[in-house]
Specification:
The complex is a heterodimer of chains A (about 110) and B (about 110).
Chain A: E1 4-7, E2 10-13, E3 19-25, E4 31-37, E5 43-51, E6 54-57, E7 64-66, E8 76-78, E9 87-94, E10 103-104, E11 108-112
Parallel strand pairs in A: 2-11
Antiparallel strand pairs in A: 1-3, 3-8, 4-5, 4-9, 5-6, 7-8, 9-10, 9-11
Chain B: E1 4-6, E2 11-14, E3 19-25, E4 30-38, E5 45-50, E6 54-58, E7 61-66, E8 71-76, E9 85-93, E10 99-101, E11 105-110
Parallel strand pairs in B: 2-11
Antiparallel strand pairs in B: 1-3, 3-8, 4-5, 4-9, 6-7, 7-8, 9-10, 9-11
The chains are: A mainly beta (about 110), B mainly beta (about 110).
Amino acid sequence: DGGITQSPKYLFRKEGQNVTLSCEQNLNHDAMYWYRQDPGQGLRLIYYSQIVNDFQKGDIAEGYSVSREKKESFPLTVTSAQKNPTAFYLCASSMEGLGDTQYFGPGTRLTVL
Amino acid sequence: QKEVEQNSGPLSVPEGAIASLNCTYSDRGSQSFFWYRQYSGKSPELIMSIYSNGDKEDGRFTAQLNKASQYVSLLIRDSQPSDSATYLCAVKWTSYDKVIFGPGTSLSVIP
């Protein structure tokens, strides 16, 4: 089955720790995205990547980092510099670059203890 | 500044009625429009996309686009309790390299 997987589903972090969220897709999509969603709010773009070894900052990139070493993988690291990281993190992918229909993974819920 | 606006709701409709969800956006030159459904605690799932003025139907769902008035709407016919969710509108502008999501409208279908 083609799709997008994210792991873990739930993640707990102590203050001051870096954590990495996994996102993998087998849809052969070129573009991948990371969004953050806070309760009762819309999606905010963190980072996006159109091709391997290239990525761009979104609207709220501070305190986050990404890599795109393989077409199917786009991991997100939430660093200790992110002051309020508790949120629902969504990974998405699309074909032929930005603007095409985005399909979402199941999400990772991160809680800072 | 690209913006997408939706009434946050909650919008309540009785079972079997038509639910009408509206979305307005700034700037002309828009290209692609998307409606997503998001159940509580879950990720958004695509309902439909629309690119041209007019109506596009898919089962009980109809998307209506009016570029001159800068709005896109989603009609849900014969609403079911399982349609209770938050509906996200998303817009992609031709001259802008990102998709902008609206804040979503919460829909509650009352049995």
